[in-house]
Amino acid sequence: MKVDFDGVQAFVAVAEMGGFSRAARELNLTQTALTRRIQKLEAYLGLTLLNRTTRRVELSAVGRDFLPQARAIVQDMTSAVERLKDMSRHGRGQLVLACIPSMTSHVLPALIQAYAQQHPDNRIRLLDGSSNEVCQAVLAGKADLGIAVQGDQHPDLVEQVLFADPLVFLCRAPHALDQAESVRWADMRDTELIGVSGFMATRIFMDYQLAKHGIRVHSTYEVQHHATAINLVAAGVGGAILPSSTFKEGDRPGVRKIALTHPTVRRKVVLLRRKGQALSPAAQAFATQIERARFKV
């Protein structure tokens, strides 16, 4: 059933203002346009809501009975529209963000803290997973936005590069390389390394880039997550090659973060959204914030 809201609104205005002239001014309409709305509503209902004479307008018996319900319809609609306008103005609502775990060490917490200060009433739900899982979450509509490592671009996703994240060498002193300002990939040949699973986007990207330069590295240990690799480095088990964003100098006593050169390998971190899909006010506010952020890795 189609509800003639314009007609209901016009009827309520005439009833409350006591006439067509004042009601037309209230709704910013001509009297002719207002009259047409009332006539259209009455024709749709098959009932007379207003009794008109040349000198006055009165509610019919049916009109008096309908007025409380008509007021409720107008008030509910007005309140709902105002809530939506408020959401739009202030970016209010719920945000679902899919993100690779490596971003949760330093980059994402800072973004979320800044977002929470600007939008304290918003609720954030975080889905952490691999780059492929992040892409799938955004494609399926389970997440408004995604943060992932750039890979093969999907035709249904829009991606924006946020920053280039260089791979670095982590080790715990004392170590043969702990005093170096930078190290070459060739120096990794004699180092016990903790590798991250070959199914991770970063590992796939690293292996591909190194293969182009004829470089191979071998891991003595292999783990599934960057955080596990950092824990093992901190315990002195071995060194690790990880994205710079996963570790901040001073996070763990004695652990050094050293630049890797010849070649310098950088993964690109991207913001993903579904093509042709309008973002909610809360998601748009976060997207705007992250686009303006200055990333230090």
From TrEMBL:
Which InterPro entries has this protein been placed in? HTH-type_LysR_regulators, LysR_HTH_N, LysR_subst-bd, WH-like_DNA-bd_sf, WH_DNA-bd_sf
SUPFAM superfamilies per the UniProt record, alphabetical: Periplasmic binding protein-like II, Winged helix' DNA-binding domain
The UniProt keywords, alphabetically, are: DNA-binding, Transcription, Transcription regulation
Domain HTH lysR-type: residue ranges: 3-60
Task: Supply the Pfam families for this chain.
Answer: HTH_1, LysR_substrate
Q: Which domain of life is it from?
A: Bacteria
Would the keyword Transcription regulation be found if you checked this record's keyword annotation? Answer: yes
Q: Which family does it belong to?
A: Belongs to the LysR transcriptional regulatory family.
Query: What protein does this entry describe?
Result: LysR family transcriptional regulator
| Species in which this protein is naturally found | Pseudaquabacterium inlustre
Give the taxonomic lineage as stored in the record.
Answer: Bacteria, Pseudomonadati, Pseudomonadota, Betaproteobacteria, Burkholderiales
